[in-house]
Amino acid sequence: MNNRTLQGPTPLDAFAHNEDLLKQRELLQQTTLKQLFAEDPDRFNRYSLQAASLFLDYSKNLITEDTFKALINLANDAKLSDGIQALFNGEKVNNTEHRPALHTALRNRGDREIKVDGQDVMPAIKDTLRRMQALTEKVHSGEWLGYTGKPIKHIINIGIGGSFLGPKMVIEGLTPYIKEGIKHHYIANVDPSDAAEVLKQVDPETSLFIIASKSFSTLETKLNAETCRQWLIDQGAKQEDVQKHFLAVSSNVEKAVAFGICEENIYPMWDWVGGRYSLWSAIGMPIALTLGFDNFLALLEGAYAMDEHFRTAPLAENMPVLMGLLGVWYHNYMGAASHAVLPYDKYLGELPNHLQQLDMESNGKSVNKAGETVTYTTGPVIWGDVGTNGQHAYHQLLHQGTALIPVDFVAPVETHNPMGEHHRWLYANALSQSRALMTGKSLDEAKAELLAAGKSETEADQIASHKVHPGNRPSNMLVLPKVTPEVMGALVALYEHKVFVQGHIWQINSFDQWGVELGKQLGDTIYPTLLAGAEAPEFDSSTNALINMFREKND
Ligand SMILES: O=P(O)(O)OC[C@H]1O[C@H](O)[C@H](O)[C@@H](O)[C@@H]1O
């Protein structure tokens, strides 16, 4: 293992309050969550808060009042409040690309001016929203017609990464709000099966393709867009009909025009919006087209409410700040290398996928803003899936494995589908998982359970240790009133800001993504060697052999 690969715990020793946190870690080893609850009847009230439409219970975390204070002091050491203001004020927080990161401007529903290089960006944002609204209304009223005069029924997003994951998560998350008669589809992967399977389901006469690409130069998106355009022509449309079936969202208007999209059908993106923060821009067009413009606005409103909370609440009462600091606590002081997000709501199944890009592309960095190698671990591995499915699979490791994995449970108290006892059971499962992680089961309890079930003393002794749950494992419970557009907006904004808080503490640039480049560059050198008749490859023996295996079948 080279010395750039760090494993935790890796305390943040440059900060004045690092020592306090080290001391806290030691003290907490002498107690348990169970004990902390027993000692303090007010623990739930002390460690829970409401922000925008969300409620966070963070009482099942390994903290005491002193830990809490030390974490807030650490945030002050890192000048977090200044960082938050810099983010909102449009300072160039993305220092390697010399840009601000102004996703908050996209959902600024107030009248605050937001300037980039002296120019207020709000008029351009509002103008784009107006254009999105006009298009959405045209499509939904049946005024926008395909090449045979039929209205649009299929919205197909062609995009990848930030131009895919956010819109898909939001639309699936808000399935009950989908407009009648509208179907949504996604083509992201360069795998031909992705496009093939979508094209089998749609009808060329009623399909609207959105080419979503900030750069308009992403290989996968370019190839998929060309394939879809050719498919449309092959199905009987003429070249001039392409305008009726293709839109583009991009900051590269020139390239979109060169592809054949007329300027009127190109919606802007700005370089001060990162791809993984872009669902609030015209990249959210499939959201508006599938759910309606009113619901898109409600999503922005929800995010704005969380923005205002993050921008103005004191650090100790600030939900994204607290979630970010708790992550730092486990990651840098307790050696947690991963973090699970487990939504107890079917519609939120795509949330972990979106958060993987949001968090891991933002904070998977090993140099600080000044380009120096960091001496501490940064972004954790983010993973998860819908509850309760995971309970019958990987929760085994959460309960009895050797790794410390903090969990965020995300659970709405009201369902869109009140059917019998289902939702009550679902919520009960979320609570029982978080409680089981905390309380665990001791050796004595396990043995008593076995004896009560009729096992002999010897058998109980043999099996009991396998049934021990160590417990004392932390989790957050994020309670949503119901998954509505506002709630979804607030939820996603909460995680965006949590990622920002952690990036700020780690002093890294959360808004660039140079790490995705090398693979792309090498792809460009490998692709030509896979062509029929190409010269023998001259890479390492492994790559060469794997190239030859492909060529044997495809030459
Ligand atoms: O929107 P695009 O320019 O097509 O980019 C799509 C995605 O690809 C890149 O490789 C980046 O890793 C992502 O951050 C980005 O969201």
UniProtKB/TrEMBL annotation:
User: Where does the chain cross the membrane?
Assistant: none
Q: What's the chief localization of this chain?
A: cytoplasm
Where is this chain's protein located in or outside the cell? Cytoplasm
Pfam families on file: PGI
Alphabetical UniProt keywords: Cytoplasm, Gluconeogenesis, Glycolysis, Isomerase
Record-listed E.C. numbers: 5.3.1.9
Active site positions = E361 (proton donor), H392, K520
Q: Which reaction does it catalyse?
A: alpha-D-glucose 6-phosphate = beta-D-fructose 6-phosphate
The pathway that the record names for this protein is: Carbohydrate biosynthesis; gluconeogenesis; Carbohydrate degradation; glycolysis; D-glyceraldehyde 3-phosphate and glycerone phosphate from D-glucose: step 2/4
Supply the InterPro entries for this chain: G6P_Isomerase, G6P_Isomerase_C, Phosphoglucose_isomerase_CS, SIS_dom_sf, SIS_PGI_1, SIS_PGI_2
**Any one GO molecular-function label of the UniProt entry:** glucose-6-phosphate isomerase activity
Its biological purpose is as follows: Catalyzes the reversible isomerization of glucose-6-phosphate to fructose-6-phosphate.
Indicate the family of this protein: Belongs to the GPI family.
HAMAP family given in the database record: G6P_isomerase (MF_00473)
What is the protein name for this chain? Glucose-6-phosphate isomerase
Q: Which source organism?
A: Zooshikella harenae
Q: What is the lineage of its organism?
A: Bacteria, Pseudomonadati, Pseudomonadota, Gammaproteobacteria, Oceanospirillales
